[in-house]
TrEMBL record:
Listed GO MF terms: hydrolase activity
Keyword hit for Hydrolase: yes
Keyword Hydrolase: yes
Keywords, in A-Z order: Hydrolase
Pfam families, A to Z: DUF348, Transglycosylas
All copies of domain Resuscitation-promoting factor core lysozyme-like, residue ranges: 203-276
Family: Belongs to the transglycosylase family. Rpf subfamily.
Residues covered by the DUF348 domain: 23-61, 82-111, 146-176
Name of the protein in question: Transglycosylase-like protein with SLT domain
Length: 282
């Protein structure tokens, strides 16, 4: 009888051992071996002490049956506060690093400027991330036309990167502090706050320009150097609130600045235009 009881016990142990399953549970890329009698994925996770939270991804599904040799993958959800091109949204991601999290949200790895390294870990507690994508914007300032691929956060930053500094009183649209979306056209327009006196308007500005430069708004004389129709030096151009180079602006703007100069010197044209100033009187 003793021998029979022993045989039954051994047989039972063998049967129980046969029913046990070896399952691999992988949590966020880290594997663990679990041996037990669980029938479903959820049961295996309970035996392994893996607690699930909202947003966690489990493959196969928690109600699926497991077999010996099964592999269960768990990717824990992480809260991510994303500010993309100035717009903030909240997400749950299961990726464990910044680069994969961006890919999970369908944001190109070549997005542009990112506030954290792509290989930085996304902790379970979550993180905040700021991304500025690379956008195509256009700058129009007088005759200057610039197409710029940029990650700039503001219109001001776009202009600074293109070495365009609007003078006080110049109108910039959109406003300097606004966000430049893809396709934005930024215009810089000089405001003509000083009126030109009627007797100055009646002078022969075309004759002066013809004498100085052949009337060419793009004229350049390296001797000064001098620029544009009225052969401004850069100090004189800046003295009449000109921005950039005179040759970057159209005929009307160059003429307005020349008329301002005439008013500033109180009609003493021999100072700025000693060789051609008398043409104003023709």
């Amino acid at each position: 009888m003793v021998c029979l009881a022993g045989a039954l016990a051994v047989g039972t142990l063998v049967a129980v051992s046969y029913l046990a399953k070896d399952v691999t549970v992988v949590v966020d890329g880290r594997p663990m071996a679990v041996r037990g009698f669980a029938g479903s994925v959820r049961d295996v996770l309970d035996e392994a002490g893996v607690q699930l939270s909202s947003g966690d991804v489990v493959r196969p599904g928690t109600e699926d049956e497991v077999a010996d040799g099964s592999r269960i993958e768990v990717r824990r959800a992480r809260p991510l506060v994303l500010t993309l091109d100035g717009r903030t949204t909240k997400h749950l991601v299961t990726s464990t690093n910044v680069g994969d999290a961006l890919a999970e949200l369908d944001i190109s790895p070549a997005a542009g400027k990112i506030s954290a390294p792509r290989d930085e870990a996304v902790p379970l507690s979550g993180m905040s991330l700021t991304v500025y994508t690379r956008r195509k914007v256009y700058v129009v300032a007088g005759a200057t036309r610039v197409a710029s691929s940029t990650t700039a956060r503001t219109v001001r930053e776009v202009l600074r990167r293109n070495r365009i500094t609007p003078n006080d009183g110049y109108a910039v649209s959109p406003p300097l502090g606004s966000f430049p979306k893809d396709g934005t056209v930024i215009t810089v327009t000089p405001l003509r706050t000083t009126p030109i006196q009627p007797d100055v308007l009646r002078l022969n500005w075309a004759a002066l320009a013809t004498c100085l430069s052949g009337g060419d708004p793009l004229a350049y004389n390296p001797d000064g150097p001098y620029y544009g129709m009225y052969q401004f030096s850069l100090p004189v151009w800046k003295a009449v609130d000109g921005m950039g180079l005179p040759t970057a602006w159209p005929v009307e703007e160059q003429t307005y600045r020349a008329q301002l100069l005439y008013q500033q010197v109180e009609g003493k044209w021999r100072g700025p235009w000693p060789s051609c100033g008398d043409r104003l009187l023709t």
